[in-house]
């Protein structure tokens, strides 16, 4: 049985390991973050001391752990190549990529995979004084980058002309707010929202339409995905693998709708919590809070509660009071959906992947 090689999660080290994997001279690897605590969590998920389940495994990546402990995701070399090839096909052809994120998450790793397959040396943003300097170092005829919504919002304020120079900017890691999408379009920036996760080899749905080879269907709103970019399973967790991979379909934890053939993600399966006997859709509450002019950012979660079963808690960046927010929610949603607790923060805690650290929020109020 083949073994798993740990490599530093730096762009140079991951690129070297990935290049060798793609040309057939390398072996399966798992990239480790530089932070010791994060690296320990990754080691626990990828289990480097045990033989790999299959010789076809190319990379083992740890999920972000935004909702709990990270899991080791087994990705074959074929899945990585299928994702990169389909992405280039959707965007209009191979090109050079700028990497402004960490390569030990699937989004950053696939920026490097696309670069290798396209025959270009990727430009690593952290090697330059700022984002604009990195972009100016690109020489490819077609130029691409990928980033999370928070990065796009920041660069729209500081580097909008630089953003216009990209043929496409793939947005992933978190949902792209409608306001941000409109702002980018108005600025003449080609920002394409993507949907996917580590288990799907990065984004597999662009602007609501699946990439070539990817199929979608819904099971009572739960999004199911099938295609060549899917992972092979969870590291040393056959029962969990069997639960989510059935007949070639990956059962995600997300809910969606198909509107004119396009996928619209409406929330997570666990976004409906029962509070005092009432079913509350926390994503709807969150969306309403974000419409308040005094709310800069917000996340709404259900927190276990001895009296209510679950209490609806809003984590809000802004100076608005609890009662004002409850009244605001109650204007368009059932009053019983209004958050029972409001936690005001200067900023939402974020993971390196660009996702909100939900577990940290929950740990702070339990």
The gist of it:
By secondary structure, the chain is α/β, with parallel strands linked by helices.
Structure write-up:
It is globular, with a radius of gyration of 21 Å. Helix 1 (11-22) crosses helix 4 (106-118) and helix 3 (77-91) crosses helix 4. It has two domains: 5-266, Rossmann fold (3-Layer(aba) Sandwich); 276-365, GMP Synthetase, Chain A, domain 3 (2-Layer Sandwich), CATH 3.30.300.30. The chain starts with a strand and ends with a helix. The chain has helices at residues 11-22, 36-46, 77-91, 106-118, 131-136, 149-158, 160-164, 178-186, 238-244, 282-289, 322-330, 358-365; strands spanning 5-8, 29-32, 57-62, 72-76, 96-99, 123-124, 143-147, 168-171, 191-197, 202-206, 209-210, 215-219, 222-226, 233-234, 245-246, 249-259, 262-268, 272-275, 278-281, 295-305, 309-318, 341-345. The protein is α/β, with parallel strands linked by helices. The chain contains twelve helices and 22 strands.
Would you spell out the secondary-structure blueprint of this structure?
Blueprint: E1 5-8, H1 11-22, E2 29-32, H2 36-46, E3 57-62, E4 72-76, H3 77-91, E5 96-99, H4 106-118, E6 123-124, H5 131-136, E7 143-147, H6 149-158, H7 160-164, E8 168-171, H8 178-186, E9 191-197, E10 202-206, E11 209-210, E12 215-219, E13 222-226, E14 233-234, H9 238-244, E15 245-246, E16 249-259, E17 262-268, E18 272-275, E19 278-281, H10 282-289, E20 295-305, E21 309-318, H11 322-330, E22 341-345, H12 358-365
Parallel strand pairs: 1-2, 5-6, 5-7, 7-8, 8-9, 21-22
Antiparallel strand pairs: 3-4, 4-14, 9-10, 10-11, 12-13, 13-16, 15-16, 16-17, 18-19, 20-21
């Amino acid at each position: 049985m083949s073994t798993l090689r740990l490599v530093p999660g730096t762009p140079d080290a991951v690129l070297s390991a990935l290049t060798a994997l793609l040309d057939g001279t390398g072996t399966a690897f798992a990239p480790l973050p530089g932070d010791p605590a994060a690296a320990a969590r990754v080691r626990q998920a990828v289990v480097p001391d045990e033989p790999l389940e299959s010789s076809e495994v190319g990379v083992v990546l740890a999920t972000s752990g935004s909702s709990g402990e990270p899991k080791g995701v087994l990705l074959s070399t074929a899945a990585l190549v299928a994702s990169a090839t389909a992405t280039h096909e959707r965007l209009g052809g191979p090109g050079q990529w700028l990497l402004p994120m960490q390569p030990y998450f699937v989004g950053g790793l696939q920026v490097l995979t696309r670069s290798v397959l396209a025959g270009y040396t990727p430009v690593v943003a952290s090697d330059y004084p700022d984002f604009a300097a990195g972009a100016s170092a690109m020489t490819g005829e077609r130029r691409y980058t990928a980033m999370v919504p928070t990065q796009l919002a920041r660069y729209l304020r500081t580097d909008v002309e630089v953003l216009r120079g990209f043929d496409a900017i793939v947005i992933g890691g978190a949902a792209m707010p409608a306001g941000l999408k409109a702002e980018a379009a108005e600025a003449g920036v080609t920002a394409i929202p993507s949907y996917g996760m580590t288990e799907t080899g990065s984004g597999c749905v662009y602007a609501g339409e699946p990439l070539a080879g990817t199929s979608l269907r819904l099971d009572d709103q739960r999004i199911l995905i099938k295609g060549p970019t899917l992972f092979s399973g969870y590291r040393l967790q056959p029962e969990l693998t069997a639960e989510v991979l059935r007949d070639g379909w990956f059962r995600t934890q997300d809910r969606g709708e198909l509107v004119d053939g396009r996928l619209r993600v409406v929330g997570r399966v666990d976004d409906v919590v029962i509070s005092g006997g009432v079913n509350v859709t926390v994503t709807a509450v969150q969306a309403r809070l974000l419409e308040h002019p005094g709310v800069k950012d917000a996340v709404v979660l259900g927190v276990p509660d001895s009296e209510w079963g679950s209490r609806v808690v809003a984590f809000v960046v802004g100076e608005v009071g609890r009662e004002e927010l409850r009244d605001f929610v109650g204007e368009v949603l059932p009053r019983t959906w209004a958050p029972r607790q409001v936690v005001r923060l200067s900023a939402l805690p974020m993971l390196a992947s660009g996702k909100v650290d939900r577990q940290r929020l929950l740990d702070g109020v339990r």
